[in-house]
Task: inverse folding
């Protein structure tokens, strides 16, 4: 999974062509850490159709707020730089994320 930063977010997400999944997480977010291995497994299955990325919001708080990420975990799919769908907090389960991904592959 590509690790996003303030420096590469624009190139890798906003200016990217096609679908990009961003896993917004934080090191103190236990649900985020529990979800991450599932996202990494999904990358093995769907990574040829969707670019999988992650952003540690503690390193890019303003960027996350700019993307209207107010709760964690947050999984957002972008297409050609525009948000198309998101799952946040309790909605962001492994099965819900996989169902969301399947709509776009």
Result:
């Amino acid at each position: 999974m590509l690790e996003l930063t303030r420096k590469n977010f624009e190139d890798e997400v906003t200016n990217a062509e096609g679908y990009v999944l961003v896993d917004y997480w934080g090191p103190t977010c236990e649900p985020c850490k529990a979800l991450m291995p599932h996202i990494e497994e999904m990358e093995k299955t769907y990574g040829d159709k969707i670019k999988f990325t992650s952003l540690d919001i503690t390193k890019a708080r303003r960027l996350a707020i700019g993307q209207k990420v107010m709760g964690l975990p947050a999984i957002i799919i972008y297409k050609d730089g525009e948000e198309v769908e998101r799952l946040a907090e309790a909605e962001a389960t492994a099965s819900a994320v996989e169902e969301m991904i399947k709509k776009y592959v």
